[in-house]
């Protein structure tokens, strides 16, 4: 669990500006843990990147209808600005419905090309937005494109976050057809590994309205419990939880 010192320091930094140097943070024990698979048997974690976007609520409703939980890795400024009324409402909707919200960094940049301070900036800005909108401070992040190096893991470790990758890619972001995406779930169910950690994107209409229900049906039919990433690795989803904040003039991209 994050220390009180780190919470105080981090929230102060979030309220003011991005950290300017490494010594702005309490020294962590080491680099972030990289999660590539779930560890709790018979669990499957469906994860959704690149939002919030117009299909986010539909994804949540489909998960809810099926008694499933999902994890949403949000950007601050990608398809939409997270602070705009509808995107912010989508984030709050997912959180209020018991799904996990997590960081996908601010602007979906290639983190491996950034400096130490630039990576911090990409991370703290979306953390601030999630804290303002939901009151929750995330304990998990996903590096855009699944790219990370020692610098990225050092920053994430100092921010007390785990870096989440995946072991099943639906292919929705790389041009796979709906039939090809469904075949990915057919194949994993046929192999029936102990756990599944899948990558989807909430920004595609086909994912929200065609592939998702199929994936849920296949995975549940194979005996998997559809849970959040935090649940599938036996960890807490947030470093701290408080009341959401009221919108101010600072809520902008």
TrEMBL record:
<keyword id="KW-0479">Metal-binding</keyword>
<keyword id="KW-0472">Membrane</keyword>
<dbReference type="Pfam" id="PF01522">
    <property type="entry name" value="Polysacc_deac_1"/>
</dbReference>
<dbReference type="GO" id="GO:0016810">
    <property type="term" value="F:hydrolase activity, acting on carbon-nitrogen (but not peptide) bonds"/>
</dbReference>
<protein>
    <submittedName>
        <fullName>Carbohydrate esterase family 4 protein</fullName>
    </submittedName>
</protein>
<dbReference type="GO" id="GO:0098552">
    <property type="term" value="C:side of membrane"/>
</dbReference>
<dbReference type="GO" id="GO:0046872">
    <property type="term" value="F:metal ion binding"/>
</dbReference>
<keyword id="KW-0449">Lipoprotein</keyword>
<keyword id="KW-0378">Hydrolase</keyword>
<keyword id="KW-1003">Cell membrane</keyword>
<keyword id="KW-0961">Cell wall biogenesis/degradation</keyword>
<feature type="signal peptide">
    <location>
        <begin position="1"/>
        <end position="17"/>
    </location>
</feature>
<keyword id="KW-0732">Signal</keyword>
<dbReference type="GO" id="GO:0005975">
    <property type="term" value="P:carbohydrate metabolic process"/>
</dbReference>
<dbReference type="InterPro" id="IPR011330">
    <property type="entry name" value="Glyco_hydro/deAcase_b/a-brl"/>
</dbReference>
<keyword id="KW-0325">Glycoprotein</keyword>
<dbReference type="InterPro" id="IPR002509">
    <property type="entry name" value="NODB_dom"/>
</dbReference>
<feature type="domain" description="NodB homology">
    <location>
        <begin position="42"/>
        <end position="227"/>
    </location>
</feature>
<keyword id="KW-0119">Carbohydrate metabolism</keyword>
<keyword id="KW-0336">GPI-anchor</keyword>
<dbReference type="GO" id="GO:0005886">
    <property type="term" value="C:plasma membrane"/>
</dbReference>
<dbReference type="GO" id="GO:0071555">
    <property type="term" value="P:cell wall organization"/>
</dbReference>
